[in-house]
Specification:
Elements (H helix, E strand, L loop, with lengths): L10 H16 L7 H9 L20 E4 L2 E3 L2 H11 L6 E5 L5 H7 L4 E6 L2 H14 L4 E5 L12 E6 L8 H6 E11 L5 E9 L2 E10 L14
Parallel strand pairs: 3-4, 3-6, 4-5, 6-7
Antiparallel strand pairs: 1-2, 7-8, 8-9
Length: 225
Amino acid sequence: MIDAMPRSHENDMLESARRRMLDHDLRGRDITDRDVLRVMAETPREVFVPSDYFSQAYADKPLPIGSDQTISQPYIVALMTQTLRLGNACDVLEIGTGSGYQTAVLARLARHVWTIETLAELSDSAQHVLEHLGVDNVTFRVGDGGCGWPEERQFDRIIVTAAAPDVPEPLQAQLAEGGLLVAPIGGGHTQSLIAAEKCQGKLIERHLCGCRFVKLRGAHGFETS
């Protein structure tokens, strides 16, 4: 991850790439939420990727961020965020902090974000970048995200950014009644991105699209190799 903004001569290139992302990859598909589009335009994706990938920061594809992890493609970030229907009264639980880019997008739309990352080096790096950007409504934790937030509480929205065999039971329990959850479900090379609403204690799921995420590790994920 990086400690500074990119060099000034790269700014024009990045601005052109950002406009293409918004117009072609987001508006050109099914991203219509004005607040999501605004936040995606305002959040500098380039500060969340290694310096070798500055020129690709706004390409609609995942990029490596170290530790065998990736930053999701912009379209998937926008789709998951739009599906959550966030408001400034929402408390959000994020499973998989990663680079912190999705975290930053969520934080600009929600009341507060609680985010869990299994890798301390990624959590520390994300926290550094978000502090640099002045994002102060995020609480970070290192641990097994599939087990939910350690302290017992309910969340209006839950987003999972790693593939799990099924929606982990602890996350189902921590989702408030009427709350929304978005997660990639399934193993292998591709998964189903699902949206679920909690109604009378049960999740009502619908398929959004096929996707490919790194696998969730831990008690409710996949065994490490």
